[in-house]
């Protein structure tokens, strides 16, 4: 081992691995430099747990002459027999180092050893990567060197775990902050907050198509069914909308009980209002079909669910609103208020999709003129449009 080169690699990690702008590039450069310094690495893995509602963790795998392989794992893997029998479980749960020499009979307790043997690996080392608060991630290091790693080489790997853990911790914290913001406020709002728009009053105006929806009969439903069932229903109901909204370029800003507020910024499409509105209408049709087919998880249809969505196009104020140090990143303005009023009209008319005159005039969607309605808080009545393919029910929910 070249001790001076090893020291330089440690310093490079402590300094933030500046020559490698991404985690994958850091992983590749670090491993290649270690090999040049005399460490006979074959396969190196870094396994990082994440704070994400769907992803349990991410892994980065390096092998000589290949691109760093990136992967994600879901929460189901944590209960799988393969994971439970892995040396990494000991690292994650106990924070202990695990070594498995392929020629050592004691290593046979780990099923992975047979896979390593077939790959020509002679030694396997799993080490914890410990954050400042004690949170543990894991790394694995293998070699094909006859006889496995020497003690000097093992000590060299151990010396890397602290600076490597610091680097990963910083990157992970930044990524976690971004993911949490995306999860709770949406990706565009998250980008603005991460960019420094965190003070009350930081706001911009933008032209956007506005989506405001509501589940029909939710209050009565809540009275009849257990709370846990209501939560399941709401999650399934929102799944029918969120996927369609995001697929068509929208961003969900807020869940309000059974209500949902989303925006589709016009400036994302070079000012093409017709294209944006067309995407919104497609999302509304997909959501309608999804809600109509909604069933409980056990497959028994309890009742036919209905929802209403109001579509409008206008200028909104988009930014931080709140009191003291408790803020919300949302949008407000007369256009949002009008969408809220239209959604209530949709309920009175027994319609699923209604649109303002401005939205329907821009979006070619085979609209029916439903008439003119007074709007609370607005000086002028608003002409409301519904879809031709939707016949109102005889009795409203």
UniProtKB/TrEMBL annotation:
Q: Which Pfam families match?
A: Guanylate_cyc
SUPFAM superfamilies membership: Nucleotide cyclase
Among the GO biological process terms of this entry, one is: intracellular signal transduction
> Which PANTHER family does this one have?
ADENYLATE CYCLASE, TERMINAL-DIFFERENTIATION SPECIFIC-RELATED, BLR2264 PROTEIN
Residue stretches making up the Guanylate cyclase domain: 209-343
Name this protein carries in UniProt? Adenylate cyclase
Q: Which Gene3D superfamilies match?
A: Nucleotide cyclase
Q: Molecular function terms in GO for this entry?
A: adenylate cyclase activity
Q: Which InterPro entries match?
A: A/G_cyclase, Adenylyl/Guanylyl_Cyclase_3/4, Nucleotide_cyclase
């Amino acid at each position: 081992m070249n001790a001076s080169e090893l020291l330089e690699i440690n310093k490079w990690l402590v300094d933030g691995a500046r020559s490698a702008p991404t985690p994958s590039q850091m992983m590749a450069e670090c491993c290649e430099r270690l090999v040049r310094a005399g460490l006979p690495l074959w396969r190196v893995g870094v396994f990082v747990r994440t704070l994400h509602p769907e992803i349990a963790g991410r892994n980065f795998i390096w092998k000589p002459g290949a691109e760093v392989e990136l992967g994600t794992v879901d929460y189901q893997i944590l209960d799988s027999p393969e994971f439970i029998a892995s040396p990494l479980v000991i690292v994650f749960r106990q924070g202990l180092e695990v070594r498995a020499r392929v020629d050592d009979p004691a290593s046979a307790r780990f099923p992975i050893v047979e896979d390593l043997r077939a790959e020509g690996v002679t030694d396997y080392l799993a080490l914890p990567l410990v954050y400042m608060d004690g949170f543990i991630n894991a790394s694995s290091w293998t070699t094909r060197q006859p006889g496995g790693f020497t003690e000097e080489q093992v000590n060299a790997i151990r010396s890397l775990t602290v600076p490597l853990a610091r680097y990963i911790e910083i990157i992970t914290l930044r990524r976690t902050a971004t993911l949490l913001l995306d999860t709770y406020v949406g990706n565009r709002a998250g980008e603005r907050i991460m960019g420094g728009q965190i003070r009350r009053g930081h706001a911009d105006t933008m032209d956007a198509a506005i989506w405001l929806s509501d589940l029909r009969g939710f209050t009565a439903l809540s009275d009849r069914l257990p709370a846990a069932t209501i939560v399941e229903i709401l999650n399934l109901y929102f799944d029918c909308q969120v996927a369609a909204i995001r697929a068509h370029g929208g961003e969900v800003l807020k869940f309000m009980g059974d209500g949902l507020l989303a925006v589709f910024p016009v400036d994302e499409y070079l000012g093409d209002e017709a294209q944006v509105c067309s995407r919104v209408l497609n999302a509304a049709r997909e959501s309608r079909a999804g809600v109509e087919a909604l069933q409980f998880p056990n497959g028994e249809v309890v009742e036919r669910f209905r929802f209403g969505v109001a579509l409008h196009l206008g200028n909104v104020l988009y930014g931080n609103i709140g009191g003291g140090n408790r803020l919300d990143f949302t949008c407000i303005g007369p256009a949002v208020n009008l969408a809220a009023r239209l959604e209530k009209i949709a309920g009175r008319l027994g319609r699923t999709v209604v649109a303002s005159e401005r939205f329907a005039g821009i979006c070619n969607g085979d609209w029916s003129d439903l008439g003119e309605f007074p709007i609370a808080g607005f000086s002028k009545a608003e002409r409301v449009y519904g879809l031709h393919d939707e016949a109102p029910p005889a009795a409203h929910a």
